[in-house]
Amino acid sequence: MYDPLELARAVERQVVSGDRRKYYRFRPSRYYGGIYTADAVGCNLRCIFCWSYRYASDLTQGKFYGSHEVAKILTEGARRRGYKRVRISGAEPTIGKEHLISVLREVPPDLHFILETNGILIDRNYASELSGFKNLHVRVSLKGTNPEEFSRLTGARPEFFWSQIEGVRNLVEAGVSVHVSAVVSFTSKDRLVRLLGILTNLSEELVESFEPEIIVLYEGVKRRLYSNNIFPKIALTPEGKLITRDGDLTK
Q1: Which option is the CATH number for 4-216: 3.20.20.80, 3.90.700.10, 3.90.1860.10, 3.20.20.70?
Q2: Nearest to residue 91, comparing CAs of 137, 38, 139, 131?
Q3: Burial grade of 125 (CB within 10 A; 0-12, 13-18, 19 or more)
């Protein structure tokens, strides 16, 4: 098992260079009602269900872009399509804090910036810096509903599940707009209820805005899961069809 903080430092040395960060594509997306997206290279987790696993782990992919260039591409892409939102996604955008903060400074305030993160790197100082951007909303994606699930799905040490929760706490206390999602394809109702209880203690609004994440069985995802004898209770096909097994969350 690995330490996600140590992995983040190792990844940052390869995907961040001064003001520049590696990205592998920029694209429009239908999510959030239409959003222009920058997909970053490099993550501090190795989630077995990750749709962008290749770009999370193979750091030779993509090319370096400065913060001004990233903000310009996002802004112009959003303007062309009439979008009101932009985001960084694909891997872990909180790696390379100075680059991310610089991108946020460059994005016009009338565009809503969605930051999608696992939350592990968001300490109090990071959350405080993010609180200065009123057009920012953070989506913290929990990898499972408890430490055991987290470790099984990511291969990381189980105690870092709580680092995700601490990241959420730091964002809430700093007054950052935030909601929580969690991968529920491998869990049970009881474990989900316990997670919602934890979130309630941080803020009742987190439960009201909670987003259950159902994995999509792209071929690569399916191959990695099944080769490790991990079978989802509930999942989506790439075409959007819901697949369930006995004992899943829909029962």
Answers
A1: 3.20.20.70
A2: 38
A3: exposed
Considering Cα of 55, then 88, then 48, then 147, what sign does the dihedral take?
Answer: positive
| 6 Cβ neighbours under 8 A, 6+ residues apart | none
* Position 7, amino acid: L
Give Cα 28 to chain centroid, integer Å. 17
Q: Are 162 and 192 in contact (CB under 8 A)?
A: no
3-state secondary structure 90-150: CCCCCCCHHHHHHHHHHCCCCCEEEEEECCCCCCHHHHHHHCCCCCEEEEEEECCCCHHHH
Per residue in 5-18, pLDDT tens? 999 999 999 999 99
SS (H, E, C) 69-89: HHHHHHHHHHHHHCCCEEEEE
| 53-105 tens-digit pLDDT | 676 777 888 999 999 999 999 999 999 999 999 999 889 999 999 999 999 99
Higher pLDDT, 217 or 119: 119
DSSP 35: E
How far is the C-alpha of 204 from the C-alpha of 208, rounded, in Å? 7
Exposure of 145 in the CB half-sphere (CA atoms within 13 A): 21
Burial of 46 (0-12, 13-18, 19+ CB in 10 A): middle
